[in-house]
Design goal:
This protein is an alpha/beta fold. It contains nine helices and seven strands. The structure holds NADP nicotinamide-adenine-dinucleotide phosphate (NAP). NADP nicotinamide-adenine-dinucleotide phosphate binds next to helix 1, strand 2 and helix 7.
Length: 247
């Protein structure tokens, strides 16, 4: 069995997920991650991780499907010699609109990926971690889940749900030394925020005390800390990384 830890990261093909994969690779972990559509981007993440001297593997899987999450975990276990030490639930989507104009499909799609995807992954992986009596689970919430945002009722609901799931599972698993925490990014420069119209982006920037967007690496740094040996007594917490937005 490999001496190295194995981390499973959802949505690792780009943005924050890619930065997390690379950061955990720098920490010496083998990396398994999934992507949904971006095979080329996923291959690039694999290369960036392997450059850190570890093994990396990309799996195509849609986390909104319970069956595909089970398949992803099975493949990760085969890759990781039967172990998954760290799970990072990062995959997420937005379907923004004012509530009056929000379609049922916009609610369903966001709930399916952000809420159900994290649920399915935590259920599948915590079974294994319970057997081993060790593990770290890190979920991606958002400043929007804590404070709300006009035009994102669906997204905010799922990111608030991530906080509720994190705290509840932390209580379920604490006695087995498995920690469950969440990170709540503010406005981070990725394709997700590149899609925000210029006028809305200016308004959001004005609400950031540091007056600039964060970078994916800012989030990856905190994930690395939560996944590391120094964070073993921290569980059920939500750490904001947002340039002061949540103050
Ligand atoms: P992003 O650039 O849009 O990347 C999203 C990632 O999730 C991609 O790797 C994508 O894969 C994957 N993904 C999307 N739908 C999926 C599905 N159904 N199944 C599996 N994978 C799927 O997003 P990001 O900005 O890096 O955000 C990452 C996380 O941080 C999300 O949970 C987001 O809500 C949260 N967050 C972001 C910000 C921000 O400002 N960027 C702020 C707060 C919270 P493909 O490339 O293959 O499609």
């Amino acid at each position: 069995m490999s001496e190295r830890k194995t981390a499973l990261v959802t949505g690792g093909s780009r943005g924050i997920g890619r930065a997390i994969c690379v950061r955990l690779a720098k920490d010496g972990m083998d990396i398994v991650f999934n992507y949904q559509r971006g095979k080329e981007a996923a291959d690039e993440t694999v290369k960036l991780c392997e450059a850190e001297g570890i093994r990396a593997y990309a799996v195509q899987a849609d986390v909104s499907s319970s069956a595909e999450c089970e398949k992803l975990v099975k493949e990760a276990l085969e890759f990781g010699d039967g172990q998954i030490d760290v799970l990072v639930n990062n995959a997420g989507i937005t379907k923004d609109a004012l509530l009056m104009k929000m379609k049922d499909e916009d609610l369903d799609a966001v709930v399916d990926v952000n809420l159900k995807g994290s649920f399915y992954m935590m259920r599948a992986v915590s079974r294994l971690m319970l057997r081993k009596k060790q593990g770290r689970i890190i979920n991606m919430s958002s400043v929007v889940g804590l404070h709300g945002n006009a035009g994102q009722v669906n997204y905010a609901a799922t990111k608030a749900a991530v906080v509720g799931m994190t705290k509840s599972l932390a209580k379920e698993l604490a006695s087995r030394k498995i920690t469950v925490n969440a990170v709540a990014p503010g406005m981070i420069k990725t394709q997700m925020t590149d899609a925000i119209p210029e006028s809305a982006r200016e308004k959001m920037l004005a609400e950031i005390p540091m007056r600039e967007l964060g970078m994916p690496e800012d989030i990856a740094e905190v994930v690395s800390f939560l996944a590391g040996d120094g964070a073993g007594y921290i569980t059920g917490q939500v750490i904001s990384v947002d340039g002061g937005m949540a103050i």
